[in-house]
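Sample pair:
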Amino acid sequence: MADLDEASTLLAGSEPLRWLFTGDSITHGAAHTNGSRDYVQLFEERVRWELGRTRDHVLRTAISGRTVPDLLDDAEWSLSQYRADVVSLMFGMNDANTATPDLLGFADDLTRAVALARAAGARAVIVHTPNRIIATETAARRANLASYAEVVRQVAVATDAVLVDHHAAWSRAEQAGAVERWIGHGCHPNAEGHRVLYRELAAALGIWDPASPTGRGFIPAAELLPERRPGPPPGSSAGRPDDGVPHPIAADVRGRI
């Protein structure tokens, strides 16, 4: 929780901040919002306008199709050069899309990405689990995604990063067959799905306000989401379901990082 405390301190201060968001097509906001704001843009509006932090910069280097190894190969250009105060990493969706899952390799790579962000000056790092997907997605992604989400959780704990657990937050909607209402294609959230992503990010940082303009956007089947009240951010494990999937990587990640 060390980075959560630091992020809260930074948001409460007057110093202008550089926020860097990197990841895959979901953080890229590519195509599937049909011109509506994606979760990064909603976050920027919340921070720079609604919270009055007009001198903050919100940067984005996400690229459709990216995995964590892609980011590591391009780290100087996509991460380090910006010297961001807060770095947000949302990966796992493409990393999981493989017939030969490598959970230990993914844990190592994500941990390296967190370390590189800190080496470049980040005072807080945010890691996101991938959102849930629909049945038309690839068999590999459907089989592996829960285990990759669990690795993200374990890396967050081991590195004291802020955890935004979309995979857990979307659990009840998946069980109710409502995830399709938040997905534009396969694994890609539509405009409403991006409002759900933003809701969880804002709640994790303690800046969620359902009465604000960014918080009032319509979310179908919103009653299936965990309750998020304005005020202190939820704990890193709040609302996390037991999905019944064994995750043997957990003890190994904790022991090695």
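Residues 96 and 144 are 5 Å apart (CA to CA).
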